[in-house]
Amino acid sequence: MRWRVLVSAPYMLPVLSEYHSIFEENDVEVIAASVRERLSEAELLPLVGDVDGAICGDDRFTEGVLRAAPRLRVISKWGTGIDSIDLQAAGRLGIRVCNTPGAFTDPVADTVMGYILAFARQLHWMDQDIRAGRWQKPLCVSLQERVLGVVGVGNIGVAVARRAVAFGMHVLGNDIVEIPASFLADTGLKVVSLDQLLAETDFVSLNCDLNPTSYHLIGQRELALMKPTAYLINTSRGPVVDEQALVRALQERQIAGAALDVFEKEPLPPDSSLRALDNCLLAPHNANSSPQAWRRVHENTIHNLLKGLRDSSPRSGRENA
Question: I want to staple 152 with a disulfide (CB 3.0 to 4.6 A). Which of 109, 207, 222, 262 is the partner?
Fold first, then answer.
């Protein structure tokens, strides 16, 4: 049997030719989608009618899309986050969903530390001053003088905490899942409530998944708890933060600044108020950037796809009502 597979993962599309032999050996016909960041429901609907599998990025695989794909057996997500896929509908329809947990732990944790250092040492702003002809010496701090709050102490949160401890920072953590005692003993991380974490830390790193408990986890009330000298760093998912509430907090200098790798709408709209703020560092959802990590994810995503195709059965006879 020859499988038809839709590939819409932006990081994989440029290197598809490198995996041509693997696809051919496994009788896979690849349909490469044209995509910039992600495909909407409307963009996916005309593409999925006759595909058996999909390698996707953050595309909107809604129930409507899944029902429009009667042959679809497996969705292999490139990366970790699967919040853009309707998992309940996929389960009802017998569609397997796979991902690659822990794929980008190190590059994302490195990015978080990069932002912390940039804020603590005012690197970006000193560069701007020098280029503008100003010889000013802003107040900088040593990381050992500061406290980091990690919201979501999973793979990435753990890696962020370990890096911060190596710099001499004291670390507070918050998670809805119990954090291993061995890790707490090893790092000295103190588990506290979210409110206490926000009130007592100088940097807040968001490293949680996007789910019903984390949607707009950081809003107007939470931002008001933070110190006026504190910084918010989000490398998780855009909707974890109420973006409009954050804009207001930054405009009013309610907090010192923010670094955002992710946004509620991506790519960031040209008219976003965030673009005009001088106390906000912005990036194009690129904290995972690492050629070695990308290659591992390419290979694991293809492996998950092929295993899903082999192990699954046709959709006929499954719930379609």
Answer: 207
